[in-house]
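User: quick one, fold this
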Amino acid sequence: MVKINGEELNIAGKSISEFLATTNYDPKRIAVERNGDIVPKAQYDETMLCDGDVVEVVSFVGGG
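Assistant:
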């Protein structure tokens, strides 16, 4: 199980890109933190989610 934004999901073995493809997140407007480290967007395809990972997905909101 992988904890994403506090929710346990059975997505171990998928890449960050594969997970994001199942969501409504705009990849251009988010940051992903895995186990306390920011994952560069260029590594989303190769970063595999493992059992016990804790992931936070943060959306950026524009305004002024």
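User: anything notable?
Assistant: The chain is about 10% helix and 30% strand.
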